[in-house]
Amino acid sequence: MPKNNKPELKPGDKYNRLTVLKFSxxxxxxxxxxxxxCSCGNEKTIIGSAxxxxxxxxxxxxxxxxxxxxxxxxxxxxxxxxxxxxxRHAEERGYKWALSRKFGKTNKGRLFLLW
Length: 115
Prior knowledge:
The protein is built from 3 helices and 7 strands, in the order ββββαααβββ. By secondary structure, the protein is an alpha+beta fold. The strands form 2 sheets. The chain has a 4-stranded antiparallel β-sheet. The protein has a 3-stranded mixed β-sheet with strand order 5-7-6, with helices on one face.
């Protein structure tokens, strides 16, 4: 069997929001798992190669923060349903839609710009 030559992480090493606490275990595929502490305070066991490559940056708190920062409004789903309804009925009448941040109308090809 080939030997796993990947570098072993040391306690105290920091990768994005994660800090290595200790080596946890190796699985049957010779992947190394480490106990990590996130900057938010959560502890989680994560595969070492995912941290080195940058695929894992936090315990999941970073994804939640990014999702909340991109949120438009509390009633976003209602707004989306209304816009999709208008779009569907406009396409039935031969109008084409393109969404943007400006509101206006161009005479070429009956293109409406919303938002």
